[in-house]
Amino acid sequence: MSDKITNILLVGVGGQGILLAAEVLSETCMLAGFDVKKSEIHGMSQRGGSVVSHVRYGKEVFSPIVPEGEADILFGFELMESYRSLPLLKEGAAVIANDLCIPPPSVLMGQESYPADLAGKISARFPDFLLVDGQQLAIEAGNARAANIVLLGAVSKRMHIEEKFWLESIEKMVPKKALEVNLKAFQVGRSLS
Amino acid sequence: MKEILSGNEAIARGAYEAGVRVACAYPGTPSTEILENIIRYREINSSWAPNEKVALEVGIGSSFAGARSIVTMKHVGVNVAADPLFTLSYTGVGVNGGLVLVTADDPELHSSQNEQDNRNYAKFAKVPMLEPSDSQECLAFTKLAFEISEKYDTPVMLRTTTRISHSKSVVELGQRQGDLPEPKLVRNAPKYVMLPGNARGRHYVVEDRMVKLGQDGCSMPINRTEMRSTSMGIITAGVSYQYVREVLPEASVLKLGMVHPLPMELIREFASKVDKLYVVEELDPFIEEQVKAAGIAVTGKEILSICGELTPGRIRRGFGLPEQEPVAPEKLPGRPPNMCPGCPHRGVFYSLNKLKAYVTGDIGCYTLGFMPPLSAMDTCICMGASIGMATGAVKVLPPEEQKKVVAVIGDSTFLHTGVNGLMDMVYNKGAATVIILDNRITAMTGRQDNPASGHTLMDDPTNAVDLHMLCKAIGVKHVRGVNPHDLDECQKAIAEEMERPETSVIITNQPCVLIKREGVFVKGGTLAVEPDSCSGCRACLKIGCPAIEWVGTPGEKKGKAHIDPLLCNGCEVCRQLCKFNAIQEAK
Hints:
The structure holds two protein chains of two kinds.
Chain A: E1 6-13, H1 18-31, E2 35-40, E3 50-58, E4 71-76, H2 79-84, E5 89-98, H3 105-108, H4 118-125, E6 129-132, H5 134-141, H6 147-156, H7 163-173, H8 179-190
Helix pairs in contact in A: 1-7, 5-6, 5-8, 6-8
Chain B: E1 2-6, H1 7-17, E2 22-25, H2 33-38, E3 45-48, H3 52-64, E4 69-74, H4 75-91, E5 99-105, H5 119-125, E6 129-130, H6 135-151, E7 156-161, H7 162-165, E8 167-172, H8 189-192, H9 196-216, E9 224-226, E10 229-236, H10 239-247, E11 251-255, E12 258-260, H11 264-273, E13 276-280, H12 286-293, H13 312-318, H14 345-354, E14 358-360, H15 385-396, H16 399-402, E15 405-410, H17 411-427, E16 433-437, H18 467-474, E17 478-482, H19 487-499, E18 504-508, E19 527-529, E20 548-552, E21 559-563, H20 573-577, E22 583-585
Parallel strand pairs in B: 2-3, 2-4, 4-5, 5-7, 6-7, 10-11, 10-13, 14-15, 15-16, 16-18, 17-18
Antiparallel strand pairs in B: 1-8, 6-12, 9-11, 19-22, 20-21
Helix pairs in contact in B: 1-6, 3-4, 10-13, 14-19, 15-17
């Protein structure tokens, strides 16, 4: 195993299933034999605020947070939050972004506008960019709430970890009654290129 | 067996493996999940106390009765528990009854009102403090803390920070220690009755204990020297150790697992082996000042800030290491936290804003009432402060301004330390209005039960404090309930009580929308805006509900409101603001 650490940032808005996706991701890394650390902030951020989760894996991980400017993969659940996180990425990082806009309070109240063409701006800076219609694909898989796992499927293609570890981890972390839909959602995401 | 655990989960596991019998806490970020995870281990009697002082006193009682006990709280909680802590240091713990106090500090104030460094409490109260740097150490140090507690007859503080409590890493689990003696009454008044005659002698015991711990710390494996290049030596602890290993992989490190008392001879030895010595620590120069006082040359806060948490990047900058060119962040609309759709606090703050009240606020979700567009909170200091501050303001303000003063406090915070403030207000004839936002739960920290919610931490039904009767018993003559979702009723009640030249209490009666227990929160019918009736007056936007969106053309003033049916909880507050009857039940 090389000494290289892979750094992943998961960003979005409270309530989007980011924490579960980060749990599955880190569990998978552990099952695949890596050292892994994960860090996030709870508390005030749960009330509709921005959420950032850091996952790092490799032979031996020290810092639980991704050093600034060193993220290899951005896993974005919401477009403006994805865009906001770009300064934390390494040059040439991969960006997998959900094609979803959740207006923040100032936009809801009509005081500010939601920025236009964020997907275009992200892909101009980071050409290794995949825009995923997570909501629509999740509905096709059987439940709109599985968008996080659709996205996780897309991210999994960028990580060199055997599929069996992903499936084992999803089976362990996802509640039984939602398992079938989530396994399907994962495959839908994984089949995207 | 290996598992990925957060620091908090690992402390809970460590307590279980250490044979702990009693766990007590008041919830507070980032400490809350310790007790929420301890309840998985049914061998441990776990409970929420009304505040941190009571939590520690419960722990002291069970320790003296011979049971290993753990008490957890956030950093500012230790301020509340400081009174028993300082004297507990003198008495020491019970026979076979180790006591560990977990303080979860919050550098960077992710979810707190200040950034105090609770390592200072260990020095101030003269108790040892351990500081883990990942989840495996959270588990191991919790167990070790009980051994130290009993061996040296002292409470032990275990300090985490947000990045330790809320980070997950791989942990190897062990077994619960099963050979601990059964609790029993042990009487030893000279040791446990801290009257001056007894306490004077105990102070000498405390000082001797700390000297011995400082000496023994030099050979404790948790204080570990890692020799690499001798050009640079770094003393560090907690999560900072991880950042140092990340950023300065070649540096020699003295990793301290016990940050008080410091193993000064070990530090001196380490200093002699390296060319240049640094301390890398978050917040105060706690280690640095003591090392300097011991006459050892060291660099610390000259290159690292006292304010905020450390990060790998901040350490890189401090040490002048090359960095990736930072990309200037673009100005984007912020995404601050907000009250939930249907939150019962919204109507109260809308009314307070309308009445131009001077609101002494308190700690909870409702502190968000400070944010626009509600903008109806003028102060927030600490748990329970709202009522005392209202009393103080009314003492000096001119009569017309006295009427403006309204204290706002949640049910859990009222029972925490607000109730004493109300006693004072009545006792000393203060004439302010107090609003208790009774949403039947401790919401901000994630819906924990409290003495008024009717359930214990272990989910057993129990007595629920009757807040009306409590206020009456204290002597408040005017106590009234209001429905905060009824804006007319709410505004009328507050206006009337503000006029009253006596103490009065208003108690709101709608639950938190996040309560999952059946039959408490009942969702109302989803509302919708009829576009043809909507005049675009924006009145409904004045409550800042996340379910209501302004749909307009950018650059133009015209537009209409829209309600997201997935978010609406049917509280009907917005409906009362619409003069055009455009907001109706969704079809």
